[in-house]
Write a structure and sequence with these properties.
Blueprint: H1 2-6, H2 8-13, E1 41-45, H3 51-59, E2 64-69, H4 72-81, E3 86-89, E4 102-108, H5 119-129, E5 130-141, H6 154-157, H7 159-165, H8 170-177, H9 190-197, E6 201-209, H10 213-226, H11 233-246, E7 256-263
Parallel strand pairs: 1-2, 1-4, 2-3, 4-5
Antiparallel strand pairs: 5-7, 6-7
Length: about 270
């Protein structure tokens, strides 16, 4: 962990790398803001249905895109969206890609779903597939003042009520299909994330965003996802409100955290 911490102040001071970041149309909490424009090969770990990869394709038509997710049905949707992308089903802590195959890896709202014992392995695998000097963009829930509003943890906080109202949710079915355990949606502090990452990284940026509207909008959108009616004006409006608040920095009180790490060129 020492080598990573030694680089914090230097990297944060040189954070204004305009030539390697997207324009201000993306907030600093959005992964697109941090994808270097000269990237030719990008991997999205936990790509779900391929929304982020699709946005990358829109901005970078010639970029080689790859994705991995445990959810078979999501993978099939992603493949239909991006037939030319290298999309596979699998685990983030067992990446089926060659060493040094990517210049940038994104891992958005994923690590909180991974069992605690596999989180260091997830980051280690990401580091393995990155080229020296490659960038990891990692975003996840932050241990802010409203972390208790996380809708994904209602099944654990109120198990009897959840079972009575929901039975088995969509997420339960996805994880059962992948033979993966549903775990408590952990909210990380900055220090925890740096600790999980371990040595061999330089910290380029740490951003915070969102407060209370983000988790509330998630709660309000949940019934629509449950009914498979997510594509309507109300859900889109709630998502827009959540995105607007996510762009606002509430410091250590924030609901979300984004960490940008650069793979050290030094042998660790």
């Amino acid at each position: 962990m020492g080598p990573a911490n030694n680089n914090v102040d230097t990297c944060m001071a040189t954070n204004g790398l305009a030539s390697t970041q997207k324009s201000s149309c993306h907030s600093r909490m959005e992964p697109m803001h941090w994808i270097p424009e000269d990237t030719t090969r990008l991997l999205d770990v936990g790509c779900n249905t391929g929304d982020l990869l699709s946005e990358c394709r829109l901005h970078y038509p010639n970029m080689h895109l790859a994705g991995i997710d445990i959810n078979h049905s999501s993978i099939e949707k992603a493949k239909r969206k991006l037939p030319d992308a290298e999309i596979q089903q699998g685990y983030g802590f067992q990446l089926p890609f060659a060493d040094g195959g990517f210049q940038c890896v994104t891992c958005i709202e994923v690590i909180e779903h991974v069992p605690q014992e596999f989180r260091p392995q997830l980051i280690s695998e990401i580091r393995r597939v990155l080229v020296p000097g490659g960038r990891l963009v990692l975003r996840c829930p932050h241990d802010g003042i409203f972390s208790w509003l996380d809708a994904q943890n209602f099944r654990f906080r109120f198990p009897r009520l959840y079972k009575a109202l929901v039975g088995g949710g969509n997420r339960d079915a996805y994880y059962e299909e992948a033979k993966e355990e549903l775990v408590w949606h952990h909210h990380f502090t900055r220090e925890e994330l740096v600790g999980v990452a371990g040595a061999g990284w330089e910290i380029e940026a740490c951003e915070f965003g969102g407060l209370i509207l983000f988790p509330i909008s998630d709660i309000l959108r949940w019934p629509f996802y449950r009914l498979k009616r997510a594509d309507n004006w109300l859900v889109r409006g709630l998502a827009k409100i959540a995105g607007m608040e996510l762009a606002m920095d509430f410091g250590r009180s924030s609901y979300g955290i984004l960490l940008v790490l650069r793979k050290s060129s030094a042998v660790v």
